[in-house]
User: Fold these one by one.
Assistant:
Number 1:
Amino acid sequence: MAKKKSQSLLSSYRKKSRRNTGKALLVLLVAVLIIAGLVILALWATGKLGGSGFSLFATKTPTPTMTLTPTPVTPTNTATTTPTITETPTPSMTPTLDGPFDYVVQEDDIYCADIAKEFKADLEVLLAINNFTNGTCYIKPGDIIKIPAPWQRMPTSTPVPTELRPGTLIEYSVESGANLDSVAKFFRSTIARIIAETNRYRTSKGITPLLTESSTLFIGELLIVPVNIATPEPTATPTRTITPSLTP
């Protein structure tokens, strides 16, 4: 009886031992599977298994930033041209020894006397060469009038001395209607000598323009005339009042 009982206990122990071993193996297997699953899950989550992984663990791909490298530019000295302002010329003329010259009447010009004073001209000559009769002066803005040179003077009615020796130079201020031919005939001179002596005088004084045969004579214009150098023509008579004055 005792032998059967001990065999029964041994058999029961062995069965119990096998059951415990099986449970241990099962637990171990489950643990291994859990660990393996966790490892796989971790690898997948980090994207190391080729998956995208959880966004929680995803690393943002840095966006490439383009860095512009400045290209050195060699400065070039470029000349800067400053525009020059061109002023519109005023039609008023600057008085010189030349004359007479044209002048455009301005808005503030009222009296001929003021214009004559501005240009240092003789008022009577200004009135005469512009055909302003009776001493009147009719001007308005925009009119063009003649301005005599400062050296032009109105002639007087002094008669020509008869005792002057041939070649004597006299100063003659041109009267209205006079021309080179009439002056030469009246003074028994020549046009060529009048031109030569007048231009010699004008050159010495800086007066322009020089006199030519085609020049138009203006009232008060100064001529230098050598008298009594030509034979007078029988029909030559003075048509104008001549005002001579001796040249010193």
Number 2:
Amino acid sequence: MFENELKKEIDFLLDKATLLEVKEIENDLATVFNKVTTENEISSQIKEAVFYILSELSDNVKQHSKASKSWILYNKDKGNIIILLADNGIGIPAVFDRYFPDLDKNDLEKVREALEKGVSTKGEGRGYGLRTVRGIVEATAAEMVFISGGVGYKITKNKKDPLEIDVAGTITLIKIPVDARLDSSQFYKIIEGRNERN
């Protein structure tokens, strides 16, 4: 039942989202970031966190998704900054299958691996962006829905619920409270991977 309601919310938000050119995604997301930071009174640390989130998600779309289309929505609703980024790409499970064909994990485990441990196709010291996005969400008492290849999680500070929703590509929906706080030292600990609670 919860998943049906979530699918309706995602569909509703996608109908309001702006179609992006994947090859121009960084420029388009910079415009969204500027809108976020000028239209809302949010702390400089949350602005930095939002910029990081948008940068990481757009980088993943451009480098890994093989998407032909992407959508972005920024909105403020009920005290939250709402960010939705979606693409029609191959999804994390297919990326795992391509780069790690011997990995014996189901699709949900592959998504969990990307969100919890980070995975790199570029070598050591890379591939921690989704893990860091998850850390920011937890540290700011935000909410994140991440679905890729039809499976994913709803993540809050103290909870991670698995999801199975029939959607193509990858969808990231983040709701950050407008009054959220994140001090600089905490933010950099998250980026450096020193704030892990797995």
Number 3:
Amino acid sequence: MANYSVKVEGVSKVYNSAGLEVRALSDVSFSLKQGEFSAIVGPSGSGKSTLMHLLGTLDRPTSGEIYIDGAATSEMNDHELSIFRNKKLGFVFQAYNLVNGVDATMNVELPLMVSPMPPQERKRRAMVLLTELGLAERARLKPTQLSGGQQQRVAIARALVNNPSLVLADEPTGNLDTKSGDEVIKLLKGISRSQQVTMVIVTHNLDITRHCDRVIHIKDGRLDKEVLK
């Protein structure tokens, strides 16, 4: 287990809707090494978004187990999962999900607000990341004053501020032009390499997969194939 950052073992997810059983995932298994830059791909309705929610501990599998840094996530209660998620996971979304009423620095600080960390340390951490991502001069600007690519960089800084083991990126280039999207993917891969952060990009854009170490193809709720580069 120690060799892997993420281990998915026989995971299935079944939803009940109006008395009907809907099987979103069936017996999915794979492992990700620490620092791997991976993608989960598949058509709409394939189950890839369900899998992302399970990896992010935002939902629980019906059966099977997901281990993150050796911890069995199904054995945690909701409170323990919330703490675990804040310490171990980072999230990057297609729509950035920034708070428009506060500046870039405060947006990056948000995951640290639940910790006892002093405000000056929160701000220092945020500024270090924004500087590394080329946004030092825009740290006091609000999201509406930033371009789409800059907003996504702020979102990436926010995902990294807790030094997570695993970052999940849901269609992170979906709202960006081709050039900005390419820059974001190269940035994420560079961070994965330099900081040994395991990254998983969930996408339908197969062009992104040329940057990835591992590509997990989901089809009809099952692992269709797994490609190692």
